[in-house]
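Recall that a protein's primary structure is simply its ordered list of amino acids. Everything else, from secondary elements to tertiary packing, is in principle encoded there. The following example makes that idea concrete.
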Amino acid sequence: MTEEYAASRYEEACSLLPGRLRAAAMTLPLQQKARTEEIRLRIGRPVYLTLPEGEAPLPAAMVTRSDLEQVLDRATEYSRYTASETIRCGYVTAAGGFRIGLCGTALPSGNINEGVRDVSSLSIRIPRVREGAALPVLPELLEDGRTLSTLILSPPGGGKTTLLRDLVRLLSQGTEHSPPCRVALVDERGELAAVHRGRPQLEVGCHTDVMDGCPKHLAVPMLLRAMTPQVIALDEVALPADVEAVCAAAGCGAALLATVHASSLADLKTRPVGRQLLDCGVFRRAVLIEGRGSDRRSRVERLV
Protein backbone atom coordinates (compact mmCIF):
# COMPACT_ATOMS: atom_id res chain seq x y z
CA MET A 1 0.00 0.00 0.00
CA THR A 2 1.60 3.28 -1.12
CA GLU A 3 1.51 6.49 0.85
CA GLU A 4 -0.36 8.13 -2.03
CA TYR A 5 -3.09 5.46 -1.96
CA ALA A 6 -3.45 5.71 1.83
CA ALA A 7 -3.73 9.50 1.60
CA SER A 8 -6.31 9.25 -1.18
CA ARG A 9 -8.53 7.10 1.05
CA TYR A 10 -8.30 9.74 3.76
CA GLU A 11 -9.37 12.38 1.23
CA GLU A 12 -12.33 10.22 0.19
CA ALA A 13 -13.40 10.04 3.83
CA CYS A 14 -13.13 13.82 4.08
CA SER A 15 -15.79 14.14 1.38
CA LEU A 16 -18.32 13.08 4.05
CA LEU A 17 -17.50 16.14 6.17
CA PRO A 18 -19.26 19.53 5.99
CA GLY A 19 -17.39 22.14 3.95
CA ARG A 20 -15.52 23.98 6.72
CA LEU A 21 -14.40 20.78 8.45
CA ARG A 22 -13.40 19.24 5.14
CA ALA A 23 -11.32 22.31 4.27
CA ALA A 24 -9.47 22.07 7.59
CA ALA A 25 -8.91 18.32 7.25
CA MET A 26 -7.52 18.65 3.74
CA THR A 27 -4.73 21.00 4.86
CA LEU A 28 -2.74 18.14 6.41
CA PRO A 29 0.52 17.01 4.82
CA LEU A 30 0.47 13.84 2.74
CA GLN A 31 2.24 11.75 5.38
CA GLN A 32 -0.28 12.54 8.10
CA LYS A 33 -3.20 11.87 5.76
CA ALA A 34 -1.73 8.47 4.97
CA ARG A 35 -1.33 7.60 8.66
CA THR A 36 -4.83 8.61 9.79
CA GLU A 37 -7.01 5.62 10.71
CA GLU A 38 -10.19 7.41 11.84
CA ILE A 39 -11.78 10.86 11.86
CA ARG A 40 -13.65 11.45 15.13
CA LEU A 41 -16.27 14.14 15.65
CA ARG A 42 -17.70 15.03 19.07
CA ILE A 43 -20.09 17.93 19.66
CA GLY A 44 -18.32 20.95 21.15
CA ARG A 45 -14.86 19.44 20.63
CA PRO A 46 -12.23 19.71 17.92
CA VAL A 47 -12.10 17.12 15.18
CA TYR A 48 -9.66 14.41 16.26
CA LEU A 49 -7.64 12.18 13.97
CA THR A 50 -6.78 8.67 15.15
CA LEU A 51 -3.13 7.91 14.38
CA PRO A 52 -1.14 4.78 15.31
CA GLU A 53 0.21 6.60 18.38
CA GLY A 54 -3.14 8.04 19.51
CA GLU A 55 -5.60 10.87 18.80
CA ALA A 56 -4.45 14.28 17.56
CA PRO A 57 -6.71 17.37 17.32
CA LEU A 58 -7.32 19.17 14.07
CA PRO A 59 -6.82 22.87 14.90
CA ALA A 60 -9.67 25.36 14.41
CA ALA A 61 -12.28 22.71 13.63
CA MET A 62 -14.90 22.65 16.39
CA VAL A 63 -17.81 20.26 15.86
CA THR A 64 -21.48 21.26 16.04
CA ARG A 65 -24.65 19.16 16.05
CA SER A 66 -25.33 20.33 12.51
CA ASP A 67 -21.97 18.91 11.43
CA LEU A 68 -22.93 15.45 12.69
CA GLU A 69 -26.31 15.61 11.00
CA GLN A 70 -24.69 16.57 7.69
CA VAL A 71 -22.25 13.65 7.88
CA LEU A 72 -25.10 11.20 8.47
CA ASP A 73 -27.11 12.71 5.62
CA ARG A 74 -24.20 12.29 3.22
CA ALA A 75 -23.38 8.79 4.45
CA THR A 76 -26.98 7.62 3.95
CA GLU A 77 -27.39 9.59 0.72
CA TYR A 78 -30.11 11.65 2.43
CA SER A 79 -32.23 8.58 3.16
CA ARG A 80 -31.68 7.50 6.75
CA TYR A 81 -34.64 5.17 6.58
CA THR A 82 -32.74 2.91 4.16
CA ALA A 83 -29.96 2.63 6.76
CA SER A 84 -32.26 2.21 9.77
CA GLU A 85 -31.25 -1.43 10.35
CA THR A 86 -27.57 -0.60 10.84
CA ILE A 87 -28.31 2.68 12.63
CA ARG A 88 -30.08 0.57 15.27
CA CYS A 89 -26.79 -1.30 15.65
CA GLY A 90 -24.82 1.94 16.01
CA TYR A 91 -23.20 2.36 12.61
CA VAL A 92 -23.70 3.32 8.97
CA THR A 93 -21.75 2.07 5.95
CA ALA A 94 -21.17 4.78 3.34
CA ALA A 95 -20.23 4.40 -0.31
CA GLY A 96 -16.55 3.63 -0.63
CA GLY A 97 -16.59 1.29 2.36
CA PHE A 98 -16.39 3.89 5.11
CA ARG A 99 -17.96 2.66 8.34
CA ILE A 100 -19.31 5.41 10.58
CA GLY A 101 -19.86 4.52 14.21
CA LEU A 102 -22.27 6.70 16.16
CA CYS A 103 -23.08 7.45 19.80
CA GLY A 104 -25.93 9.33 21.41
CA THR A 105 -29.11 8.48 23.28
CA ALA A 106 -30.22 4.90 22.67
CA LEU A 107 -33.92 4.50 21.95
CA PRO A 108 -35.96 1.75 23.63
CA SER A 109 -35.79 -1.66 21.99
CA GLY A 110 -38.41 -2.17 19.33
CA ASN A 111 -38.35 1.27 17.72
CA ILE A 112 -38.44 0.62 13.98
CA ASN A 113 -37.09 3.93 12.74
CA GLU A 114 -33.91 4.74 14.64
CA GLY A 115 -31.64 3.20 17.21
CA VAL A 116 -29.92 6.39 18.37
CA ARG A 117 -31.23 9.93 18.74
CA ASP A 118 -29.46 13.13 19.71
CA VAL A 119 -26.25 11.88 18.09
CA SER A 120 -23.31 13.25 20.06
CA SER A 121 -20.28 11.74 18.33
CA LEU A 122 -19.23 9.99 15.14
CA SER A 123 -16.20 7.98 14.14
CA ILE A 124 -15.38 7.67 10.44
CA ARG A 125 -13.13 4.64 10.02
CA ILE A 126 -10.87 4.70 6.97
CA PRO A 127 -10.46 1.17 5.56
CA ARG A 128 -7.43 0.60 3.41
CA VAL A 129 -7.14 -2.57 1.39
CA ARG A 130 -3.64 -4.03 1.72
CA GLU A 131 -3.59 -6.48 -1.16
CA GLY A 132 -0.87 -9.03 -0.55
CA ALA A 133 -0.81 -8.51 3.22
CA ALA A 134 -1.67 -12.18 3.76
CA LEU A 135 0.72 -13.64 1.18
CA PRO A 136 3.62 -14.19 3.63
CA VAL A 137 1.49 -16.31 5.98
CA LEU A 138 -0.80 -18.06 3.50
CA PRO A 139 1.46 -21.07 2.74
CA GLU A 140 1.59 -21.94 6.45
CA LEU A 141 -2.22 -21.95 6.62
CA LEU A 142 -2.59 -24.62 3.95
CA GLU A 143 -2.16 -28.38 3.94
CA ASP A 144 -2.26 -30.27 0.64
CA GLY A 145 -3.84 -27.17 -0.92
CA ARG A 146 -6.67 -27.04 1.63
CA THR A 147 -7.22 -24.26 4.14
CA LEU A 148 -6.59 -25.01 7.80
CA SER A 149 -8.90 -23.44 10.38
CA THR A 150 -7.06 -20.40 11.70
CA LEU A 151 -7.36 -17.78 14.43
CA ILE A 152 -6.01 -14.28 13.82
CA LEU A 153 -4.92 -12.40 16.96
CA SER A 154 -3.97 -8.82 17.73
CA PRO A 155 -4.97 -6.06 20.15
CA PRO A 156 -7.74 -3.68 18.98
CA GLY A 157 -6.63 -1.71 15.93
CA GLY A 158 -3.78 -4.12 15.25
CA GLY A 159 -4.78 -5.10 11.70
CA LYS A 160 -6.83 -8.29 12.17
CA THR A 161 -9.63 -7.21 9.85
CA THR A 162 -7.22 -6.10 7.14
CA LEU A 163 -5.37 -9.42 7.21
CA LEU A 164 -8.58 -11.47 7.27
CA ARG A 165 -9.98 -9.53 4.32
CA ASP A 166 -6.88 -10.26 2.26
CA LEU A 167 -6.91 -13.94 3.23
CA VAL A 168 -10.51 -14.16 2.04
CA ARG A 169 -9.59 -12.45 -1.23
CA LEU A 170 -6.62 -14.74 -1.89
CA LEU A 171 -8.47 -17.96 -1.06
CA SER A 172 -11.47 -16.90 -3.12
CA GLN A 173 -9.55 -16.00 -6.26
CA GLY A 174 -6.90 -18.72 -5.86
CA THR A 175 -3.11 -18.48 -5.78
CA GLU A 176 -0.12 -20.57 -6.79
CA HIS A 177 -0.51 -22.31 -3.43
CA SER A 178 -4.21 -23.18 -3.64
CA PRO A 179 -7.07 -23.32 -6.18
CA PRO A 180 -10.03 -20.92 -5.89
CA CYS A 181 -12.58 -21.92 -3.27
CA ARG A 182 -16.03 -20.87 -2.11
CA VAL A 183 -15.76 -18.52 0.85
CA ALA A 184 -18.71 -17.44 3.00
CA LEU A 185 -17.97 -14.16 4.73
CA VAL A 186 -19.96 -13.18 7.83
CA ASP A 187 -19.70 -9.39 7.95
CA GLU A 188 -21.77 -8.61 11.01
CA ARG A 189 -20.52 -5.04 11.46
CA GLY A 190 -19.93 -4.16 7.82
CA GLU A 191 -16.16 -3.79 8.10
CA LEU A 192 -14.83 -6.67 6.02
CA ALA A 193 -16.66 -6.20 2.72
CA ALA A 194 -18.43 -2.90 3.52
CA VAL A 195 -21.56 -3.81 1.55
CA HIS A 196 -23.38 -0.72 0.30
CA ARG A 197 -26.70 -1.21 -1.49
CA GLY A 198 -25.95 -4.90 -2.00
CA ARG A 199 -22.45 -4.50 -3.40
CA PRO A 200 -19.16 -4.99 -1.51
CA GLN A 201 -17.12 -1.79 -1.53
CA LEU A 202 -13.91 -3.60 -0.61
CA GLU A 203 -12.41 -6.44 -2.64
CA VAL A 204 -13.09 -9.87 -1.12
CA GLY A 205 -12.75 -12.11 -4.18
CA CYS A 206 -14.96 -13.41 -6.96
CA HIS A 207 -16.01 -16.65 -5.21
CA THR A 208 -17.02 -14.98 -1.94
CA ASP A 209 -20.60 -14.79 -0.67
CA VAL A 210 -21.20 -12.10 1.94
CA MET A 211 -23.79 -12.24 4.72
CA ASP A 212 -23.94 -8.63 5.85
CA GLY A 213 -25.31 -7.26 9.12
CA CYS A 214 -26.31 -10.61 10.59
CA PRO A 215 -25.14 -11.93 13.99
CA LYS A 216 -22.52 -14.63 13.56
CA HIS A 217 -24.42 -17.33 15.45
CA LEU A 218 -27.38 -16.88 13.07
CA ALA A 219 -25.39 -16.33 9.86
CA VAL A 220 -23.17 -19.41 10.10
CA PRO A 221 -25.94 -22.06 10.01
CA MET A 222 -27.75 -20.16 7.26
CA LEU A 223 -24.61 -20.11 5.11
CA LEU A 224 -23.91 -23.78 5.73
CA ARG A 225 -27.43 -24.71 4.61
CA ALA A 226 -27.65 -22.38 1.62
CA MET A 227 -24.18 -21.74 0.17
CA THR A 228 -22.09 -24.92 0.77
CA PRO A 229 -18.95 -22.95 1.63
CA GLN A 230 -15.48 -24.48 1.75
CA VAL A 231 -14.26 -21.70 4.04
CA ILE A 232 -16.22 -19.52 6.49
CA ALA A 233 -14.66 -16.25 7.66
CA LEU A 234 -15.80 -14.29 10.73
CA ASP A 235 -14.53 -11.09 12.30
CA GLU A 236 -14.18 -10.62 16.07
CA VAL A 237 -15.49 -13.72 17.78
CA ALA A 238 -16.43 -12.35 21.19
CA LEU A 239 -19.56 -14.08 22.52
CA PRO A 240 -20.24 -17.64 23.70
CA ALA A 241 -22.87 -17.96 20.95
CA ASP A 242 -20.19 -17.15 18.37
CA VAL A 243 -18.00 -19.97 19.71
CA GLU A 244 -20.92 -22.41 19.53
CA ALA A 245 -21.48 -21.44 15.88
CA VAL A 246 -17.79 -21.95 15.11
CA CYS A 247 -17.79 -25.41 16.69
CA ALA A 248 -20.95 -26.41 14.83
CA ALA A 249 -19.52 -25.26 11.50
CA ALA A 250 -16.33 -27.26 12.00
CA GLY A 251 -18.35 -30.46 12.06
CA CYS A 252 -19.76 -29.66 8.61
CA GLY A 253 -16.45 -29.79 6.75
CA ALA A 254 -15.81 -26.07 6.29
CA ALA A 255 -12.54 -24.47 7.37
CA LEU A 256 -12.90 -21.51 9.74
CA LEU A 257 -11.03 -18.20 9.69
CA ALA A 258 -11.78 -16.01 12.71
CA THR A 259 -10.29 -12.97 14.40
CA VAL A 260 -10.19 -12.35 18.13
CA HIS A 261 -8.85 -9.60 20.39
CA ALA A 262 -5.67 -10.79 22.13
CA SER A 263 -2.03 -9.74 22.20
CA SER A 264 -0.76 -13.33 22.41
CA LEU A 265 -1.90 -16.92 22.86
CA ALA A 266 -1.18 -16.57 26.57
CA ASP A 267 -3.41 -13.51 26.70
CA LEU A 268 -6.13 -15.38 24.77
CA LYS A 269 -6.07 -18.21 27.31
CA THR A 270 -6.90 -15.78 30.13
CA ARG A 271 -10.28 -14.95 28.53
CA PRO A 272 -13.30 -17.29 28.77
CA VAL A 273 -14.17 -17.05 25.06
CA GLY A 274 -10.52 -17.43 24.13
CA ARG A 275 -10.18 -20.60 26.18
CA GLN A 276 -13.30 -22.00 24.57
CA LEU A 277 -11.93 -21.30 21.09
CA LEU A 278 -8.68 -23.08 21.88
CA ASP A 279 -10.30 -25.96 23.76
CA CYS A 280 -12.85 -26.80 21.07
CA GLY A 281 -10.07 -28.27 18.92
CA VAL A 282 -11.25 -26.60 15.71
CA PHE A 283 -8.30 -24.33 15.03
CA ARG A 284 -4.96 -25.66 13.84
CA ARG A 285 -3.07 -22.42 13.25
CA ALA A 286 -2.88 -18.98 14.84
CA VAL A 287 -1.61 -15.83 13.17
CA LEU A 288 -0.24 -13.30 15.65
CA ILE A 289 0.01 -9.69 14.45
CA GLU A 290 2.64 -7.68 16.27
CA GLY A 291 3.61 -4.00 16.06
CA ARG A 292 1.65 -1.12 14.56
CA GLY A 293 1.60 0.92 11.38
CA SER A 294 4.56 0.30 9.09
CA ASP A 295 6.21 -1.87 11.78
CA ARG A 296 3.35 -4.38 11.73
CA ARG A 297 4.36 -8.00 11.11
CA SER A 298 2.63 -11.39 11.28
CA ARG A 299 3.84 -14.80 12.37
CA VAL A 300 2.16 -18.20 12.43
CA GLU A 301 2.03 -20.63 15.35
CA ARG A 302 0.82 -24.22 15.22
CA LEU A 303 -2.02 -25.08 17.57
CA VAL A 304 -2.31 -28.78 16.68
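The first strand starts at residue 38 and ends at 42. Residues 91 and 101 are 4 Å apart (CA to CA).
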